[in-house]
Design a protein that fits this description.
This protein has helices at 68-75, 98-102, 121-128, 136-149, 151-154, 166-178, 196-211, 223-229, 247-251, 254-262, and strands at residues 28-39, 42-53, 57-62, 83-88, 91-92, 106-109, 184-188, 215-219, 232-237, 240-245. A six-stranded mixed sheet has the order 6-7-8-3-9-10, sandwiched between helices. 31% of the residues lie in helices and 23% in strands. It has one domain (28-262): Rossmann fold. β1 and β2 (42-53) form a beta hairpin. The chain is built from ten helices and ten strands. It is globular. α3 packs parallel to α6 (166-178). It is of the alpha/beta class.
């Protein structure tokens, strides 16, 4: 994956077998069960279960306000659920703070511009690699690897991050995460608001990260991008899972496809588990 490791981004794709029973994949890296979460008195997640196998790429799809970004924040430790449990690499991380998860390889690239706009590109990377400051040879190797993956950033090290284009800022956000050698990388709407050519370039980079064996959870508005990059798709509506399966199966569901592309409300499949919004729970 990163320098100092046996895996590299130009290596052949590591393929994770899609399990027959998608609710219980083998060798689970992440196992989030019955997650509920509220912002004050407003509950936004209702018993969400998400299990991700090591090496798998999973897309989180749904309309605005469905709870996708909130679920990523809960997984990454930025928010804690009011109910449910989260296990990562077999360890219970339900109440673990975000700063302790980064060193274990669980990283989040937040939506929007996840950079320090007033700092230079080099300073952004320096802050991201602060935890490795006492391992200077390793930090240097990883930094060189990041420059190799993102040569455009290497040309702009002294430039303020806020003066970069939207696509370049997203490249920097990804580079900051790669510097820490992720095992599970959560990416929140990386392509939002970007030009098609930049989206294609970024998705190519994400594809190489996936091919190197990094486990991905990708929040994405584009069903086509999800189908191209991910082994599995999970569709959220109003804070609950309404569909889980292969992207090719989701593409055949006209009701859900309309919701993804047009923002229409999806019709719950007959066999999907029905949930009524639970009473608001306080932590």
């Amino acid at each position: 994956m990163l320098a100092g490791h046996e895996r590299h981004l130009d290596a052949g794709r590591v393929t994770a077998a899609v399990p027959d029973h998608l609710d219980a994949p083998p060798t689970s890296l992440l196992d989030a069960r019955e997650i509920e979460f509220s912002y004050g008195r407003m509950q936004v997640l209702f018993g969400v279960t998400l299990t991700v196998a090591a090496g798998e790429a999973t897309a989180l799809l749904g309309t605005n306000g469905a709870g996708k970004s909130t679920l990523l924040r809960v997984i990454a430790g930025l928010s804690h659920p009011s109910a449910g449990t989260i296990h990562y690499s077999g360890e219970d991380i339900t109440s673990a703070p975000a700063e302790s998860l980064g060193s274990r390889g669980l990283l989040l690239v937040a939506g929007g511009r996840a950079v320090f706009a007033d700092l230079t590109v080099a300073e952004n990377l320096e802050i991201s690699g602060y935890a490795l400051r006492r391992q200077r040879p390793l930090l240097r190797q990883r930094r060189l690897h990041v420059y190799d993956v993102f040569p455009r950033l290497c040309e702009r090290l002294s430039q303020a991050a806020g003066s970069l284009s939207g696509g370049e800022q997203q490249q920097l956000a990804l580079a900051k995460a790669l510097l820490l050698d992720p095992k599970l990388l959560c990416i929140d709407e990386l392509s939002l608001g970007l030009a098609p050519l930049m989206v294609e370039e970024l998705m190519g980079t994400v594809g190489r990260i996936r091919d190197a064996g990094v486990t991905l959870i990708l929040v994405e508005q584009s069903l086509n991008i999800a189908a191209e990059l991910c082994d599995r798709a999970v569709f959220l509506e109003k804070g609950a899972v309404r569909f889980e399966g292969r992207p090719s199966e989701l593409l055949e569901r006209d009701d859900i496809a309309r919701a993804v592309f047009l923002g229409e409300r999806a019709t719950t499949p007959p066999k999907a588990r029905q949930r009524r919004p639970a009473n608001v729970r306080r932590r």
